[in-house]
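Hi Prof. W.,

I finally got the Endolytic murein transglycosylase prediction working! I wasn't sure whether to trim anything, so I left the full sequence exactly as given:
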Amino acid sequence: MRVFRKNFIMSLIENILILLVVTFVFYSSQSLSTQKTIYVPQGSITNIISQLHKKGYEVSIIDRYILSFLGQPQSGWVDIGSTRLNRIDFLYKLATAKAKMEEITLIPGETTVLFFEDIAATLELNASKLQQFYNQDADYPEAGIYADTYYVPFGINEEQLVTFLLKESTKQFQKISHKIYGTYDKKQWLRLLTVASIIQKEAANVEEMPLVSSVIYNRLKKGMPLQMDGTLNYGKYSHIKVTPDRIRNDKSRFNTYKYKGLPPSPIGAVSFDAIIAAIKPAQTDYLYFMKNKQGTHDFTKSYQTHRRNILKAR
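And this is what came out:
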């Protein structure tokens, strides 16, 4: 009787194991629809499976255990490579695929409107939506995104991209400000970014930036209008040559030929060098500068010398 019971139990266990194996093989061989690139949320494997299920993927608690065995997926947009896989292949791809990244660069001096047009074409996004989310969330009308190279997940949408760029830029601004001032004040930083953006547009190179900065502050101190072409290269006019006609007809506060003081806000993205130049201008008495035939600028405190420099350049 004991032998019979033992054999029965062994046979039952064996049949259960066979049934489990057959069930697992059948379950894991089922095909699963997916996109070639999918977004893997941050968090535990339980959270990942839950979020995928909410997005319409046919995954279950069993997949959580299988995925736990295969490894922790990398968060972000990952390249699965196919739209139809069996369950095991899908979970293996999920566990081993690397995040697909795109490189985007904001050139110092560029305006957001042209930057968004460029990256919209590259990342297949909507430039108007990018600008809309920027206007909604940015601390500054312009220059809220630090001029730098960024690596962003493939498939990121407009809101996610702008949020990421603004977050990373604010970190940079806060880091610089805290190091120099010990605090980060948005009102103070707006003025600083405005000066830095003019320096960025006007200076021929990094070495000239503190000199251009000194001219800006010297003219402001004396109550002189800045009279700088770069301030008219705002928004969609970023790369438009400033002509006498434009100077006469532009009625905006960015026209520093018509209005004294700084423009109401920055005119483009700024680099670290331009920010430092705005914070630490060279100690000079320069009031004028003129581009020479070498492509750099001649600086002077004398209007008569400045006029000679103009004639020499012509």
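The chain has a mean pLDDT of 87. Does that look reasonable to you?

Thanks,
D.
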